[in-house]
Specification:
Layout: H1 22-28, H2 32-35, H3 43-59, H4 73-84, H5 89-97, H6 100-104, H7 108-115, H8 117-126, H9 137-154, H10 157-171, H11 181-198, H12 202-216, H13 218-252, E1 258-263, H14 266-276, E2 287-293, H15 296-309, E3 311-312, E4 318-319, E5 332-337, E6 343-350, H16 351-359, H17 363-366, H18 375-394, H19 398-409, E7 413-417, E8 423-427, H20 432-439, H21 441-445, E9 447-452, E10 455-457, E11 469-473, H22 490-522, H23 536-546, H24 551-559, H25 565-578, H26 585-594, E12 603-606, E13 614-616, E14 628-633, E15 637-642, H27 646-654, E16 659-664, E17 672-681, H28 686-696, E18 700-706, E19 714-723, H29 726-737, E20 742-748
Parallel strand pairs: 2-6, 12-16, 13-15
Antiparallel strand pairs: 1-2, 3-5, 4-5, 5-6, 7-8, 9-10, 9-11, 14-15, 14-16, 17-19, 17-20, 18-19
Helix pairs in contact: 3-5, 4-5, 4-10, 5-8, 5-10, 7-8, 8-9, 8-10, 9-18, 9-19, 10-11, 10-12, 11-12, 12-13, 18-19, 18-22, 19-22, 22-24, 22-25, 23-25
Length: 758
């Protein structure tokens, strides 16, 4: 109920412009308007709802809507919609009280005292965010929706009351100033209608779409409405004929079936015309029939009878009973060629399926049969709600969260199978990595390979309907940042980002501890004091000095270059001296004798296993065997440059205290990238010969680039290759120089001669 998502000026307006009569006002504002719908509740529950009505009526006393109606008419209308869904007494009480905290100064403790904690929590979850200010409208939508999700995760009734509230507001939008129609309608179309659809509230979904279309594009709505009315009058006889033939056919077969006509909504007709670039005359499935039968077997029997009566349209049969939609919807769909060659769509379902199709999540209250328990509960949107809550916990950025939500709101799904034949629904465009994260976040994090239908495929492969997907994991594997470029689900994206952020923080903390220890050794202290009882006071004083909240945060800041280790070490030394701990002069002498004169902090050994905490500069691409220096960029962690790199020289001149001594380990654990400029004589197959020479020298090509100039006698090829060290690179260059058509080979880097020719 965010004020940003829905301004108070637009709440619950009447559809007529004339002021209602006092008698009409009194009738609409009375509890009697709601009582007729509460026959499914116990008398004691009805009395509880009546108490909530009296409380709300008193709280809103004197408040009049722009239409001239008493304000209480809006909560009554919302509660009536909830009663239509057969929600329980607590939800109805919350519907009546949903504006009490915001508009009437009622406090949450008062509601707890009067109506109990569950009702108060529901009302609190619906309360608008009036006092919060946001930078952009999209951010405000994300924040409002986030609060709604938090409440929804505790109790799904919050979203049901919210949808009832928005439905009534859209029904009565006429009294809102016309300039607000587009914004409110767009919001409804983008946020509330998709939520209703995902929860299986199809009737509400269709109504919200229709109302939004009417107010968002009133001229197009009017034109289309006129065209549909004409078509309805022309085809009335045809529809009646089909209905008579259906009734006669089912009666002859001895089947008990309820047959109802169904007309495509104006919005769905408009969307089909817009997406497929059709004229109105080309939309053939405006009319359809819904056939409600007693059992699942009867659905398939009815399908057989229909196919005997009329010819089916090829490719237009869908079995949503065997494979339900993401929101729990189940029906058989088929399109048949009826009389006069007109295509007519038929839907076959049971009463229970019909209930879920129209009421979705609300069917938990509407239909208590065991058929909606167990696994079916998962199909009613609960998994989706939980996955969005997981994203909300891991994502603190409103815009990022909103991106996840918009992706997951639209259930254009593909259905795939696990190796054990369990069906899983994923958004269209989902990949093997999305599948792995949908199973479990630990599976996703440790995924190394995938098979689709028994064939090994790249992890970025998009899944198709009916695929059997199998993922292989390794205990030591971690998420790859490149996955963010192709994953489709918000869950996978947030899990990958969360893991990478956590990994970078841990590595930066380890690097910071190493740097501070080495800087402290240069001051004559052998090791970093432990954060124990003896040294706790010193760490407290040091944290106050640096402004850090904790020891890990201070070490992380040092690792990221936000704090200079030598400065922190000097401060820590002074505190230790005040406690009577003196530095070791022999250690000072030894450290200063071995340290480089231009380096202000201790030495770090690099073997290639540092991952996110250490970056190797792309300007010079150092490899083992090169002389190197380390630069602690502000918030970037440690950046390693070649010591003859022009960029590093400029940085050292400007910011020398941020440089630290770094050295290669004796045995690096991985290859490192470097760049080569290879000048070749143009000719057929030259690129293949150069690539073969690199393969012969055991160098992996990670990137190749050719100039865009037209074919000339000579061409420059730029390769980024992975090599073990300088010795390996020398072997690669010698191999290339011996290759036919190669005229010159140079290593590219900021401080090297080849730089002049770039």
């Amino acid at each position: 109920m965010s004020a940003v998502l829905q301004p108070a000026s637009g709440k619950g307006k009447r559809t007529t412009t004339a002021a209602p009569s006092p008698a009409a006002n009194a009738a609409a504002a009375s509890f009697a308007a709601l009582t007729a719908r509460l026959d499914y509740l116990e008398p004691a529950e009805i009395e509880q709802v009546r108490k909530a009505y009296r409380f709300a009526d008193e709280a809103h006393l004197g408040q009049i809507r722009a239409s001239g109606e008493p304000y209480i008419t809006h909560p009554i209308a919302v509660a009536s919609q909830c009663a239509e869904w057969k929600l329980d007494a607590q939800a109805l009480m919350a519907a009546l009280l949903h504006d009490a905290i915001e508009d009437c100064g009622v406090t949450k403790p008062q509601l707890i005292e009067r109506f109990g904690a569950p009702v108060a929590e529901l009302v609190d979850g619906l309360t608008k965010l009036d006092k919060l200010q946001f930078n952009t409208r999209e951010e405000s939508q994300a924040e409002s929706f986030r609060k709604m999700l938090l409440a929804m995760a505790r109790d799904v009734r919050v979203i049901l009351v919210k949808l009832a509230d928005r439905t009534h507001n859209m029904r009565t939008l006429d009294d809102v100033p016309r300039e607000k129609w587009a914004r409110i309608s767009s919001e409804t179309l983008d946020i509330y209608a998709p939520i209703a659809h995902r929860l299986g509230l199809n009737q509400t979904y269709r109504e919200l779409q229709e109302l939004s279309f009417r107010y968002l594009l009133p001229w197009r709505h009017a034109v289309l409405n006129k065209a549909v009315t004409k078509a309805r009058n022309r085809r009335r006889d045809l529809i009646q004929k089909v209905q008579r033939e259906l009734e006669a056919g089912f009666e002859k077969a001895g089947m008990n079936a309820r047959i109802a006509g169904r007309e495509k909504t104006l919005y769905s007709i408009y969307r089909k015309m817009d997406e497929k670039r059709l004229s109105f005359a080309q939309v053939t499935d405006i009319y359809g029939f819904r056939i409600i039968v007693p059992s699942v077997i009867d659905c398939y029997t009815a399908l057989g009878l229909l196919h005997q009566m009329y010819k089916p349209v090829p490719g237009r049969f869908k079995d949503h009973i065997a494979i339900p939609k993401v929101n729990g919807y189940q029906s058989l769909h088929t399109t048949l060629v009826g009389p006069s060659g007109v295509s007519v769509e038929f839907q076959m379902r049971t009463e229970a399926m019909h209930l879920v199709a129209e009421s979705g999540v609300a069917a938990h209250w509407l239909y208590k049969a065991s058929e909606l328990g167990g696994e079916n509960a998962d199909r009613l949107g609960t998994k989706w709600l939980q996955s969005l809550l997981d994203i909300q916990h891991e994502t603190r950025d409103a815009a990022e969260f909103w991106d996840h939500v918009k992706i997951d709101l639209f259930p254009d799904a593909v259905y795939v199978f696990t190796p054990k034949s369990q069906i899983m629904a994923l958004p269209r465009g989902a990949t093997a990595v999305d599948f792995a994260y949908a199973i479990h976040s630990n599976i996703g994090d440790r995924t190394v390979a995938a098979k689709i239908n028994g064939m090994q495929v790249p992890l970025r492969t998009e899944l198709k309907n009916g695929d059997v997907v199998e993922v292989e994991t390794a205990a030591v594997s971690t998420p790859n940042p490149a996955w963010l470029g192709f994953v489709r689900t918000g869950r996978a994206r947030s899990k990958i980002r969360h893991h990478l952020k956590s990994l970078a923080q841990v590595e930066s903390q380890d690097l910071g501890e190493k740097l501070l220890t080495q800087a402290l050794r240069a001051e004559g202290v052998e090791r970093l004091p432990a954060d124990d009882g003896e040294h706790h006071a010193i760490w407290e004083k040091l944290l106050r000095f640096t402004g850090s909240r904790s020891r890990p945060e201070l070490l992380t800041d040092i690792g990221l270059g936000k704090r200079i280790a030598s400065i922190v070490a000097k401060r820590l030394l002074n505190m230790l001296i005040e406690r009577g701990e003196k530095p070791d002069t022999l250690l000072i002498t030894r450290e200063r004798f071995t340290a480089h004169e231009n380096i202000s902090q201790g030495e770090v050994i690099l073997d290639g296993s540092e991952n996110a905490s250490v970056k190797f500069a792309s300007c010079c691409r150092p490899i083992p065997g090169d002389g190197i220096v380390g630069y602690l960029g502000r918030g970037e962690g440690l950046v390693v440059h070649a010591d003859d790199c022009a960029v590093a020289k400029r940085l050292k001149h400007k910011d020398s205290e941020r440089f630290i001594s770094v050295e290669w380990a004796d045995e690096p654990v991985r290859p490192f990238e470097t760049e080569l400029l290879v000048t070749v004589a143009n000719g057929k197959g030259v690129l293949a010969r150069v690539a073969a020479a690199l393969a012969t020298a055991e160098a992996d090509i990670t990137h190749v680039d050719m100039n865009d100039e037209k074919a000339q006698d000579a061409a420059d090829l730029r390769f980024i290759i992975a090599v073990r060290d300088r010795s390996h690179l020398d072997t690669v260059i010698r191999t290339l120089k011996r290759t036919s058509s190669v005229m010159r080979v140079q290593r590219v880097g900021s401080g090297r001669a080849a730089d002049d020719e770039r």
